[in-house]
Design brief:
The protein is of the alpha+beta class. The protein contains 5 helices and 14 strands. The termini are far apart.
């Protein structure tokens, strides 16, 4: 960001435009002007959002399954970003652009809590918490079969699958990935678990449980092609989210109950 400001002529040292290599010294007068945010190419769309919490710095949203977070090929409209821009049109520039700051991701077919920053300072503050692994995230997942222990910790590196580049896999050359879990409810042939990813790798929970031999029910990519259980999507829900507020540093926790479609799956299992 500083380099972009330098290139744009928005930084002066003693009234002159410096090069990036300029050595400053005591007594120099440095002036920085911030240009207005560049308009986003994403068009706001009046899509209903379930806002769990909102202040001047951030939004906590309960995302429905089927909603894509960012525009992508094949998903230009109906995204979370477009909905947030309509909900909060006065968003400050994140990284120099008028757009909501998506601090972390959820897959299209994963429901639950997602955090959105409303200004640059809040975005950096929240992102630092994710990097330091101080954010508390709990997902509810229904697995095929039953893991070997009631509580467990999976430490297996995740990277691109060398045979299928569109997928992720546990691989020796991958990045560190850690997921802790505990059993919540046992059913005949299935287990509901609470999973806590300690790292933030792409598809981490789905990849780790598939690697254990207990894939997430309904997962069309990492799961079993044929399942006796009728599940409308992957049974994965971002249930709990805890972090420190940028405004005062206090720790807050938010919770999202299982949505109706996943509750119906559990009701059939109980029967």
């Amino acid at each position: 960001q500083v380099q972009r400001l330098l290139d744009g002529g928005f930084i002066t040292v003693n009234g002159a435009l410096p090069k990036a290599s300029h050595q400053i010294k005591a007594g120099d007068y440095i002036q920085v002007r911030f240009p207005p945010p560049v308009p986003s190419t994403v068009q706001p769309e009046p899509i209903p959002l379930r806002v769990v919490y909102e202040d001047s710095d951030l939004l906590v949203i309960d995302k429905p399954a089927g909603m894509v977070v960012h525009p992508a090929p094949g998903h230009k409209a109906g995204t979370l970003v477009a909905a947030v821009l309509a909900h909060a049109p006065d968003l400050a520039g994140i990284g120099g652009t008028q757009r909501p700051g998506i601090v972390h991701r959820l897959d299209k077919d994963t429901s639950g809590l997602i955090l959105v920053a409303k200004n640059d300072a809040a975005y950096r503050y929240l992102q630092d918490q994710f990097k330091s692994r101080s954010v508390h995230k709990v997902y509810l997942a229904l697995l095929e079969g039953t893991p070997p222990t009631e509580r467990g910790r999976v430490e297996a590196p995740i990277g691109r699958d060398p045979r299928h580049r569109q997928r992720m896999a546990v691989t020796m050359g991958g990045r560190e990935a850690v997921t802790e879990y505990r059993l919540v409810t046992r059913y005949a042939g299935y287990t509901l678990v609470a999973a806590e990813p300690k790292t933030g790798r792409t598809h981490q929970i789905r990849v780790h449980f598939s690697w254990l031999g207990h894939p997430v029910v309904g997962d069309a990519v990492y799961g079993r092609r044929a399942s006796a259980l009728d599940c409308p999507r992957q049974f994965l829900h971002a249930h709990r989210l805890g972090f420190r507020l940028p405004s005062n540093g206090s720790h807050v926790e938010f919770e999202s109950p299982l949505p109706v479609d996943l509750l119906a799956v559990l009701a059939r299992l109980r029967q």
